[in-house]
Amino acid sequence: xxxGVTIDVNGxxxxxxxxxxxxMELEDHFGQGLIEIVQSLQTGLRIGALVRILAECANNxxxxxxxxxxxxxxxxxxxxxxxxxxxxxxxxxxxxxxEKNPKRASRSK
Length: 109
Known about the structure:
mainly alpha
């Protein structure tokens, strides 16, 4: 089973999973493969794309209407939406290597 991420949204537990259904819907909506969708988010952030991905992954991967996804995004903030979707992708594909320090920024100890 594909793992999910559960967060609190306005006092209510919400689980997000990138299920096969969610991935298929996203590919159909964007007309691209999942990898291309994720890459396009990294090069040019579009709020509508974030909300669409959130909608498809919500409700434990069963999806929700865009209006509900907008409510969730407004409640948790767009920055948290981005973080959440990163966590959801990592949960769905734990074997994919995560780029720990993409900008090669120095880290203080």
